Amino acid sequence: xxxxxxxxxxxxxxxxxxxxxxxxxxxxxxxxxxxxxxxxxxxxxxxxxxxxxxxxxxxxxxxxxxxxxxxxxxxxxxxxxxxxxxxxxxxxxxxxxxxxxxxxxxxxxxxxxxxxxxxxxxxxxxxxxxxxxxxxxxxxxxxxxxxxxxxxxxxxxxxxxxxxxxxxxxxxxxxxxxxxxxxxxxxxxxxxxxxxxxxxxxxxxxxxxxxxxxxxxxxxxxx
Length: 223
Hints:
- This protein is α/β, with parallel strands linked by helices.
- Helix content is 34%, strand content 26%.
- The protein contains 8 helices and 9 strands.
- The protein has helices spanning 42-49, 69-75, 91-101, 108-114, 130-142, 160-173, 187-193, 214-222, and strands spanning 4-13, 16-26, 30-35, 57-62, 76-79, 148-152, 179-183, 196-201, 204-209.
- β8 and β9 form a beta hairpin.
- The radius of gyration is 17 Å and the shape is globular.
């Protein structure tokens, strides 16, 4: 069983504490909503889990191992925003490149169907709408069958059609056996796919199960 463990982790950016002695253990698969105000450190947590940043103290472990490049490659898929895409390449160009790195070329058809990319797969990304670009970026993270999936603001700036597609995707991931962390400000959509939340409160991470009205819980914590 895959697990994520933070033990007394501290990280500061330009002298500003983002995390101080933060601890968290996730062992159960499912979808977890990562929630907090803008600039609170949600994307920073993803970068720390992926080894792109290193804590100043404390530890991070993925299945008991520090997030080295090899461990992260095997354990984590990271869906960032559409800024990681190359405007002159098509959606299928991006998919083929990532699929080759993970020996998952057979998965291209699967993720193209899941994210409904076929109609614009051959077009340069620079010509796509924001929602279409976002779907391409998420599709790249779905290619490798890693036990941990990180999705950074997958619902940000989407049109209604794309929101429905991403919502259906998140619903399908609930029973995938993976640990899926989804950062989002769209609490109404998160409520439809999970009751498990990681609230970024101050410099700590607070794990909670919210059965109803995540927005009310957010208000209580942050206002």
